[in-house]
């Protein structure tokens, strides 16, 4: 047998084994996220002990981010810089929003999202990374120009925020002046999300992640389901 044929014969089962291991990792990660979100959903919706389950919200966000990033191929310096920039920009956008009311309207954060700095929970930067990254990856499947993909990803982010807002108010994530969610909030979210998505498109790193569609979907279903029960 020629040497090239032998090498090909060896490479095929190795590649198949690698793909199988990746699928097992993916199923495991999906199972863990499903367990956390279903437990949180049932606890918040039906347990009568909401405060106990709200304590785990920051942990769930950190776990989600960790698993999501573990499926990023080739985690280069450019990729890590993207995550850091989005986390910092997301956090300070919220600081400006809370302090001025110009970006999203008049609101303030409650106690449910954990430790605050400058009146904004530190974990909020993590949330911006999760939502920006997962929506951006989803939009890459669209066969359209880059700016159109950025608009589509921004709309995905706004759609998720629409589901989050009623739940956030109910469980003291944040509160709006006069208990009214202003239209400015969704306009501001779209503008900020679009800027983040344009940046996502410009940074050079592999924009594929097997777990990203599941992360976006499970968050959407989690908040949509809770909002339907309010």
TrEMBL record:
Name a Pfam family for this protein: Caroten_synth
Its domain of life reads Bacteria
InterPro entries given for it?
CruF-like
Q: Which UniProt keywords apply?
A: Membrane, Transmembrane, Transmembrane helix
Q: Where are the transmembrane segments?
A: 28-46, 52-71, 78-102, 122-142, 147-168, 180-199, 211-229
Provide the protein name: Carotenoid biosynthesis protein
According to its UniProt entry, this protein's organism is Hymenobacter terrestris
Q: What is the lineage of its organism?
A: Bacteria, Pseudomonadati, Bacteroidota, Cytophagia, Cytophagales
């Amino acid at each position: 047998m020629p040497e090239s044929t032998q090498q090909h014969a060896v490479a095929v089962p190795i590649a198949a084994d690698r793909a199988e291991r990746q699928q097992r990792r993916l199923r495991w990660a999906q199972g863990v996220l499903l367990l956390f979100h279903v437990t949180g959903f049932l606890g918040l919706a039906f347990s009568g002990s909401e405060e106990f389950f709200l304590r785990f919200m920051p942990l769930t966000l950190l776990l989600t981010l960790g698993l999501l990033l573990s499926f990023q191929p080739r985690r280069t310096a450019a990729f890590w810089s993207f995550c850091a920039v989005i986390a910092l920009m997301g956090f300070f956008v919220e600081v400006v929003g809370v302090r001025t009311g110009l970006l999203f309207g008049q609101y303030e954060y409650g106690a449910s999202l954990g430790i605050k700095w400058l009146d904004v929970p530190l974990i909020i930067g993590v949330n911006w990374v999760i939502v920006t990254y997962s929506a951006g990856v989803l939009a890459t499947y669209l066969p359209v120009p880059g700016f159109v993909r950025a608009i589509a990803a921004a709309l995905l982010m706004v759609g998720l925020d629409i589901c989050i807002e009623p739940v956030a108010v109910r469980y003291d994530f944040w509160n709006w002046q006069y208990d009214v969610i202003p239209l400015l909030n969704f306009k501001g979210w779209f503008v900020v999300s679009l800027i983040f998505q344009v940046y996502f498109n410009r940074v050079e790193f592999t924009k594929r992640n097997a777990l990203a569609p599941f992360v976006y979907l499970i968050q959407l279903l989690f908040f949509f389901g809770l909002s339907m029960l309010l």
